[in-house]
SAM-dependent methyltransferase (Brevibacterium marinum), 256 residues
Amino acid sequence: MTTATTITTLSDQQLNSLSALVDGSTRSILSSLPLPSAPRCLEVGAGNGSVATMIGEHLGGQVLAIDLDTTHMRGSPGVEVARHDIRQGVPAGPFDFIHARLVLSQIPARKAVFAGLVEELAPGGWLAIADAGLVGNLLVAPRESDHEVWRRYNDAAYRQLGRTAGHDYGWAERTEVEMFDAGLADIAAEHLVPLARGGGPWAQYHANVSLMLEEELLAGGLCPEVLDRYRAMLADPGFRAHFHSLTYTVGRRPTR
Ligand SMILES: C[S@@+](CC[C@H](N)C(=O)[O-])C[C@H]1O[C@@H](n2cnc3c(N)ncnc32)[C@H](O)[C@@H]1O
């Protein structure tokens, strides 16, 4: 299994954590957009399908939910699930709403995919993209030596593994410029930096990421002791950190 495959392969548990942690932001973005009734929607990299379900329920439209791996998705009214690699092309629109959360920053061909998404928007259709940026601030360390553990883990997981897999942690904040350059209108962006507490849901999410990447991290030279201490630190109630930011950017295709 390649690093790129492993790093984008998420368990049910991870996808459910993401839904629990991020669906609130998605719901508020969705409700802020003036979408037509019964919109035609595309959900890219749908994961467990929570957003596709939300779109189907709240907007009452037809949703095409695509992912490389559809085994985590449950069907729901108004949602058509399809296994599809977005790098092979964007399904034919036109769509009134296209949503991609935590997908484009992981795909090296993100610029071509982005252009394809814009192309498939209906006149007046909205594109909403959310991606994570790397913050990596350890705010409160249970032990002084944890600063070094944090630094070594972050170097191994993000600066080495993530970059090798083609992740772009700057994409999230550049999406607004990309939308502007693509001629979209009514562009707006929101930038959140979640605070993670030891033992809390974001810390657990990142501890799980470290388990999923364990083989690659050790193969890349990270010491098992550092990995063990990293997980113990994330479970310590005294730990506080900003792991990453989440930027939600929306824009619409002009009607003419
Ligand atoms: C980090 S998860 C995010 C899942 C969901 N969007 C969410 O925010 O809860 C990334 C998702 O994108 C999917 N994915 C990655 N590369 C893809 C590709 N080339 N085409 C379609 N889906 C892809 C993965 O299978 C995974 O479900």
The chain has one domain: 3-252. The mean pLDDT is 92. Residues 124 and 253 are 5 Å apart (CA to CA).
